Amino acid sequence: QVQLVESGGGLVQAGGSLRLSCAVSGRTFSNYAMGWIRQAPGKEREFVAAISGSGSSTYYADSVKGRFTISRDNTKNMGYLQINSLKPEDTAVYYCAADRNPVGLAAISTLHCDYWGQGTQVTVSS
Predict the structure, then answer these.
(1) What's the CA gap between 90 and 109, in Å, rounded?
(2) Contact call for residues 126 and 70 (beta carbons, < 8 A)
(3) Residue 45: what are its φ and ψ, rounded to 5°?
(4) How far apart are CA 51 and CA 108, in angstroms?
(5) Tell me, what's the pLDDT at 26?
(6) Which of 53, 54, 56, 106 is most deeply packed, by most CB within 10 A?
(7) What is the rounded CA–CA span in Å between residue 126 and residue 110?
(8) Alpha-carbon span 101 to 34, nearest angstrom
(9) Which residues of the chain have pLDDT under 50?
(10) Rounded CA gap, 19 and 28, in Å?
C-alpha cells in the first residue's frame, strides 16, 4: 500500500507562486510514476502533470505548460509541483497521485491512478 500526503496549498494573489509537496510512504518510491490532478469547484478532476519513476520523463497539460514544473526526490520519497504565475482559474484542490507503472504517465494523464492523496486547497485571488 502507498500513502500520499499533500501539503503547501494556500491563498495566494494572482501572479504569485506556490510549491506543493507530496510525501509518499509505503513502497519504493522510484517504482511509481506520480502526478498531480486538480479539481476546481463544480468541475471534474483535471490532469495537471506527471513524472516517471526515475524523474527522466515529464508530461504536462497544455493549460499549465510553462507555468508548472513537476519534480521528485526519490531519496526523500517526495514529489513536488512548482506553480508560477498563478491565475484565478488555477483555484482548485490539488491531488497527488501515483501509478504502479514507473512509466505510467499516460495512465495518470487519464486519471487512472492506483493511489491518491487527500488533496490540498489552492486559492488564487484576483
Answers:
(1) 17
(2) no
(3) -65, 145
(4) 9
(5) 79
(6) 53
(7) 30
(8) 9
(9) none
(10) 23
pLDDT at 108: 92
Which secondary-structure segment (H or E) carries 103? none
Q: How far is CA 52 from the centre of its chain?
A: 12
Identify the pLDDT of residue 77.
Answer: 95
How far is Cα 71 from Cα 85, in angstroms, rounded to an integer?
18
Which residue type sits at 106?
Answer: A
Residue 82's pLDDT is what?
A: 98
Q: How many CA atoms lie within 13 A of 126 on its CB side?
A: 3
Task: Classify the C-alpha dihedral 9-13-14-16 as positive or negative.
Answer: negative
Contacting residues for 77 by C-beta, under 8 A, at least 6 apart: 23, 24, 25, 29
Residues 6+ apart with CB under 8 A from 113: 35, 37, 97, 98, 99, 107
